[in-house]
Amino acid sequence: MISLLLWLSLFILLSVVIALFGLRFWFSQRRSRDGILTLAFFHPYCNDGGGGERVLWEGIRSLLEESEWRREGKKRRICLFTGVQDKDLDIVGDETKEKLLAVDILSKTKERFNIEIPSNQIDFFFLKKRKWIEASTWPRFTLLGQSLGSIVLGWEALCLLNPDVFVDTMGYAFTLPIFSWIAKSRVGCYVHYPTISSDMLKRVENKVEAHNNNASISRNPIKSFLKLYYYRAFAWLYGIVGSFSDLVMTNSSWTMNHISNLWKVNGRLYRLYPPCNTDKLETIPLNSSKRERIILSIAQFRPEKNHSLQLQSLQTLFKQHPEYKKEGIKLVMIGSSRNKEDDQRIEKLRQEAQQLGISENVNFVINAKFEELVGWYSRAMIGLHTMTDEHFGIGVVELMVAGVIPVAHNSAGPKLDIVIPFKGEKTGYLAQTAEEYASSFHSILVMDSSQREAIQVAGRKSASRFSDLLFGKKFYFHRFNYS
Question: Are strands 292-298 and 380-384 parallel, antiparallel or unpaired?
Fold first, then answer.
């Protein structure tokens, strides 16, 4: 019986190996032989309007303008794998409707980021199975579920196109082996945030409650023990799939350190700060004495952004200094809403503001266009950021460039790369608790205009490290050996 099981296991293993090699040969034969070299980006949510999408579109624009990419005698093609909302599934496969959707996406990109991509210089490949990577599809074992779901979505992408170069710009590392080994593509990725990190492991090990470690687990020793080993096993798998990348770019020191430890890709690993909209925003007058007493938050309405802490910080400020509430100091929360879940989160935040007694001092601005954002940047005095372990923090940089003094979370990107002294001058504030945020707000509000302007000037000069131009020069995916 044991001998039979052994032979059966060997037969199954051999069959799998033969099937994989067969797929590898078949897909390599399907690659276009027309002499046009194809680079395909994988970004299932290209129309979301966040910092990750800015990286994608600025990266594409930089490639289109890159002399090495356009050198004489070499034909190039840029493609984009992206998903569609459930209501738009009928569009996929209809060439006319797909072209209209592509034009709409590029139009919104122009509105939100002031980045213009000619529609005739990029080919869209729309994916129908995006629900497989939705967090709502995997209420339990979300990390593993979304990663397995990305394999399904990656397979759908490969069946549509086998590119010469595949670049993941959204953090779906489990797609890398598909294109590296089966498709025999050159593979690269721009990592905004490690799917799992040692910080996440420590929170579970220390039973710290967080958005990804709720109270039912953090307060239960057995569940915490099981989750810790689940995380460790996932981290091991994550390290394996990440190692398939030929070129890895990360957006911050914090992300680079974690990816280096997990993927072991030293020599293929670079840090490239994401592009921040410095050109337009740096023309905004600092006008320290004319700034309104507005606290400005710009962040997508996702759980990890911790908007609740923003509301609690404002309430704490009003408790400590009631005169500020009477003066009408406002918290303006600007962000995009991607789906019903985001809409529900916004409604809960409205209710929370009501319960905290600060609703008259809180404004919500949803899906603002670029020019509207510029208007708020030019008016606000204080910028607010509350995400723990924000990989980088494009929003914090844009606040600094616009002359809005940031109060950011004292961790990861803002702590290590952004809100740091510039030639000995303060560029902003760091905080962790509602009390620390409230104290920082008060410090800025009571400053005289010359003190605030000194911080504004230092912040704007420091932020020049994160310009679109510097990003474009170092977006190395054009430097693959394509021949």
Answer: parallel
The tokens describing 239, both together, are: 């390290």
Q: Are the CB atoms for 356 and 311 separated by under 8 Å? A: yes
Rounded Cα gap, residues 317 and 310, in angstroms: 11
Alpha-carbon dihedral sign for residues 354, 357, 363, 367: negative
In whole angstroms, what is the distance from residue 392 CA to residue 274 CA? 8
Quick check: 53 and 83 in contact, CB under 8 A?
Answer: no
**pLDDT by residue (tens digit) across 193-228?**
899 988 788 887 777 766 666 666 767 778 788 888
Cα–Cα nearest to 173, from 157, 188, 161, 163: 188
Q: Which two tokens stand for residue 275?
A: 């592009």
Is there a contact between 466 and 397 (Cβ–Cβ < 8 Å)?
yes
pLDDT single digits (tens) 387-399: 998 889 888 999 9
Query: Is pLDDT of 255 > 90?
Result: yes
| Cβ neighbours for 5, distance < 8 A, ≥ 6 positions apart | none
What are the CA-CA distances from residue 39 to residues 36, 60, 275 (Å)?
10, 10, 20
The answer to pTM > 0.70 is yes
pLDDT at 318: 96
Is it the case that residue 324 has pLDDT exceeding 80?
yes
Listed in sequence order, the residues at least 6 apart from 387 whose beta carbon sits closer than 8 Å to its beta carbon are: 299, 304, 305, 306, 393, 409
Residues 336, 367 contacting (CB under 8 angstroms): yes
Q: Which residues are paired to 333 by β-bridges?
A: 297, 364
Residues in the chain: 483
pLDDT for 306 beyond 90: yes
Q: Could you report the per-residue pLDDT of 332-342, keeping only the tens digit for each?
A: 999 988 778 88
CA angle 120, 113, 286 (to 5 degrees): 150
Nearest CA to 314 out of 325, 306, 301, 300 is that of 325
Instruction: With residue 330 as reference, give the H or E element that holds it.
Output: strand 330-335
pLDDT for the residue numbered 342: 86
In degrees and rounded to multiples of 5, residue 186 shows phi and psi of -75, 140
What pLDDT score does 7 carry? 64
